[in-house]
Amino acid sequence: MGVFLLSSPAFLVFFTFFTFCLLVDPVFGITRHYKFDVKLHYVTRLCHTRSIVSVNGQFPGPRIVAREGDQLLVEVVNHVPNNVSIHCGWADGPAYVTQCPIQTGQSYVYNFTIIGQRGTLFWHAHISWLRATLYGPIIILPKRGVPYPFAKPYKEVPIVFGEWFNADPEAVISQALQTGGGPNVSDAYTINGLPGPLYNCSAKDTFKLKVKPGKTYLLRLVNAALNDELFFSIANHTLTVVDVDAVYVKPFETETFLITPGQTTNVILKTKPSYPNATFFMTARPYVTGQGTFDNSTVAGILEYESPPNSLHSSIMLPLFKPILPALNDTSFATKFGSKLRSLASAQYPANVPQKVDKHFFFTVGLGTSPCQHNQTCQGPNGTKFAASVNNVSFAMPTTALLQAHFFGQSNGVYIPDFPSTAMTPFNYTGSPPNNTMVSNGTKVVVLPFNTSVELVMQDTSILGAESHPLHLHGFNFFIVGQGFGNFDPNKDPAKFNLIDPVERNTVGVPSGGWVAIRFLADNPGVWFMHCHLEVHTSWGLKMAWIVLDGELPTQKLLPPPTDLPKC
C-alpha cells in the first residue's frame, strides 16, 4: 500500500495504493500501458484562475483501469520544475523513503502487477501539498470471468472528493511551516474537480450524475482531500456499501457514510423504479474533531433522472431535495458506521487475520510542539511551532532513500533502527495533557523479520486536543481487530477483539480520544512508510517507517533496484 509526504517541497511523489508489488509473479492478466505527462496548466474555480500541476492536462487526473492480475507499465514524464515520482515497482513512491525522484526533463517507467485487490484505489502526489491537484482513480476490475459478489451494476461511476485552494497550496504549507502556525484552509471541496452550486461563482462547475430509473449504479468513491474526513449522502436514496480500500465487505445499507483522506468506498445506488419528478443533491462536508480551523463548507453535486421519452419534464423546474448530513463533530455516527464494516470472510474471499502475534507495538499519535528558532516569532501554541509525532518521535526526512540505504547496507547516517515499540513516557493519554508538549526528532525505523505477525495499537493523545487521525500503512493491508475510547487497556480490551471477520483496509481512522488495534503479516520485504493522511499532520512529522527483512526463499527476497531507477 503506500506512503506519503516528504518534507521538502522540491520533490513531488505520486502514490497509487498498490500493495505487494515487489514479490509477485504476473498472473493470467494482460499488460496495460499508460503515459503520465506531468505539466502545468491553468484552471479556473470559484472565479479564480491559477496554474496547477496536472497529469495529461486533466484535473482530476486520468483514471487507470485494470483487472486483478494485470501488469501495468506507467511511464511518467516530468515537464514541471518539481521533481516527480510515482508509486510501485522496486520503489513505492515516497522520495527519500523508497526512491529518489525523477528530475525535471527526465522520465521513468513503473512496472507492477495487481495482486489480491479488486475495487477502487487512487494515485496521487506524495510530497508537500501537491496532491491538491495531482490525483486520479484506479479502477480494479475482477479477473475476467470472475463475477462481483453482488449483482452486476448497470453502470460504474468514479466520484473523487478533493479540496480546492484559490492560493497555491505549496505557498500555503510553506508559510505555515515557516511561521509554525496552522495553515490556511481550503476554499472549497470538490466532486470530480467541481465545487458545485453552493459556492460562489460555481453553478456551472457542478458534477451531475445522470441516471435511469430502475437501475443499479456502482459508485466508486475516493477521498483525495488533503486535510478533511468527509460525510457523504444522496438525498432520498439509500446506498449499499460493498467494498472499501479494494477489499469486499459484507454489504450493508446506509443513507450516509464517512470516508477519510486516503480511503476508498464502493457503494451500490439503486435508482427509483419510476421517474421521480425531482432532482437530488449529493453533498459532502467535513467530520471535524480537532481544535484548529477548518473549511466549514459543503460540496454538492446533482443526481438527475433521465426524463421519459416525449415528456415535458425536461422543460420545467423540478423540486430539488437536499440530504441531511450528521453534525460536524458527530463522533457517535463515525463510530457506528465504522463498526458496520466487516470482511466477507468467505471461502473465496477469506479474512486471513493473524491469530497469533509475534510482536506487539503501542504507538501514541498526536500533535505536539517544537521550539521556535532564535530571533523568530512563531505562531504555534505559546510561541512554539506546531509539530506531530508517533511515540513522541517527529520523523525527520533523510537525504538518501531509506530503501536503497537498506538494500545496499549503507544505513549509517541515514536512519537508526531503534524506533520505540511503546510509549517512552506513559501518561494519561486522553486526560489532562502533560506540561511538556515538545516532541523529539529523528529518522528512526522499526525492523521486522520476514513473516512477523504484528499487532499494533494506535492511541490518540489529547496533548493539544484529541483528534481523529487517519493512519495509512504502505506495503500491506491490515485487519482492524478492535477500537475504543479512552486509554487502551492491554489487560481487558484484547478480549473484545474481532478475529473472525474484521474489516481489511489500508487506512484507518484512530478515534478522537480513543485507540484502534490492527494486525498484519509482515510478508513483503522492503521499507514501508506509515503516516497520517491529514496532509498537515504529515507535514508536521506524524509519520514513521517499517523495514521488513528478507525471507529465506528467493521469492521472499527484495529484488535489486532497476538500472534506470532515479538517483539522488
Automatic annotation (TrEMBL):
Pfam families: Cu-oxidase, Cu-oxidase_2, Cu-oxidase_3. It is an enzyme of class 1 (oxidoreductase). NCBIfam families: laccase. Its cofactor is Cu cation. The keyword DNA-binding does not apply. Residues 39-143, 156-307, 420-550 form the Plastocyanin-like domain. Belongs to the multicopper oxidase family. It is found in: Secreted, Extracellular space, Apoplast. This is Laccase. The keyword Metal-binding applies. One of its GO terms (molecular function) is copper ion binding. It catalyses: 4 hydroquinone + O2 = 4 benzosemiquinone + 2 H2O. The lineage of its organism: Eukaryota, Viridiplantae, Streptophyta, Embryophyta, Tracheophyta. Binds 4 Cu cations per monomer. Transmembrane segments: none annotated. InterPro entries: Cu-oxidase-like_N, Cu-oxidase_2nd, Cu-oxidase_C, Cu-oxidase_fam, Cu_oxidase_CS, Cu_oxidase_Cu_BS, Cupredoxin, CuRO_1_LCC. Keywords: Apoplast, Copper, Glycoprotein, Lignin degradation, Metal-binding, Oxidoreductase, Repeat, Secreted, Signal. GO terms for biological process: lignin catabolic process. One of its GO terms (cellular component) is apoplast. Its EC number is 1.10.3.2.
